[in-house]
Amino acid sequence: MEEIDMSHSFSSIIGVSPVLQATIDVSRRLARTSSTVLLTGESGVGKELFASAIHSLREGANSPFVAVNCAAIMESLAESELFGYEKGAFSGADPRGKPGKIELARGGTLFLDEIGDMPLALQAKLLRILEDREYYPVGGTRSLSVDCRFIAATNKDLARLAEAGKFREDLYYRLDVISLDIPPLRRRADDIPLLAETFLRRFGIVEPMPAQLITALTDYSWPGNVRELRNAMERLSVFAEDGKPRAEHLPAAVLRATGADTKPTESLVECSPLPIDGTLPEWLADCERKYIEAALAETGDNKQAAAHRLGISRMTLYNKLSLLLGRSSSD
Ligand SMILES: Nc1ncnc2c1ncn2[C@@H]1O[C@H](COP(=O)(O)OP(=O)(O)OP(=O)(O)O)[C@@H](O)[C@H]1O
Ligand SMILES: [Mg+2]
Question: 107 CA to middle of ligand 2, Å?
């Protein structure tokens, strides 16, 4: 019973936001097919978690899920790692031969992590395998059949890599057929409190989070996504001597973003939120006008000082004044 590993199922993907739920819905659908899937998304969004959930829904949690980190795989050894080798294939090799990752994944899933970093020569071979569903082990004369589902993942922009000649275009098109983008945590801030609470529990903290902590967490942009949040919760648990999680124990980057010591002079003025109608030039002009007015107010209508504050010449300021303020007065 203790062998049951929940970390591989969809139920271990935590989140209540509609964005995440929609992503889960799509991946459940992908799980029903045997097609090759490409998972994209920033670092730490949960690509590997989704890959193993997709795997276990179709192939079953007991079938093999074999992960290959394409960034770490050494080019010279890559082929024998993936395809295996026959007896006496090269000196120093195991005399009995060795199965490759594709063979180890038979009946299950081969997870090609960081596929954007796969050496180009290997990309060509992978494409052939995806099309032909067979391959030759190194030093082998008999081909082996491919009997695994492939799931690839990357936090890179493969289209851009392909354009720059760093990723094979044909492989990119082959993989892009069924791709799923896992959204960054900042686009699903509703998930943050539940994720934070779950991680805290895992680290042994059962006391509720104070409101101030929740605000600090939801205000932060989490560039390292769920992994960064998990690490921050680990930190809180370490510092919570009385078992109470506190905002003051958050990592410096989160604290800096929450506020008290954030640069009050950096923003002279807030731009209005994006309007429902209107054009970008109109919106920009509106921001510019407010910015100039704020600089004039701050400098007591001193044009020279205001121009300096804005980083433009006095002449430019005069031009902008007649253009922008002139127009706004006729609104
Ligand atoms: N929705 C989620 N619910 C619970 N845990 C999550 C969720 N998303 C991510 N995690 C956890 O966050 C950590 C990072 O996730 P994962 O390794 O899957 O990210 P990744 O996208 O593969 O990152 P990288 O690009 O850096 O390899 C893992 O510990 C994972 O279990
Ligand atoms: Mg990963």
Answer: 22
Q: How many domains does the chain have?
A: 3
Tokens of 123: 């990309």
189-227 per-position pLDDT tens digit: 999 999 999 999 999 999 999 999 999 999 999 999 999
Nearest-atom index, ligand 1, CA of 41: 21
End-to-end Cα distance, the chain: 73
Where does ligand 1 bind, in terms of residues with CB under 6 Å? 13-15, 41, 43-49, 155, 195, 226-227, 230
Closest CA relative to residue 118, chosen from 128, 126, 129: 126
Two tokens, residue 294? 């704020």
Query: Atom 16 (ligand 1): residue with closest C-alpha?
Result: 46
Residue 268 lies in a domain: no
Tell how far the Cα of 117 is from the centroid of ligand 2, in angstroms.
13
Ligand 1 centre and the CA of 224: distance in Å? 10
Enter the DSSP assignment of 138. Answer: B
Give the range of the structural domain holding residue 88, as residue numbers without chain letter: 6-181
Are residue 155 and residue 200 in the same domain, yes or no?
no
Q: pLDDT tens-digit profile of 161-184?
A: 999 999 999 999 999 889 999 999
Given phi > 0 = left and psi -120 to 50 = alpha, else beta, which region is 46? Answer: left
User: Among all chains, which residue has been given the structure tokens 């949960």?
Assistant: 46
Residue 263 within any structural domain of the chain: no
Asked if residue 134 and residue 71 are part of one domain, the reply reads yes
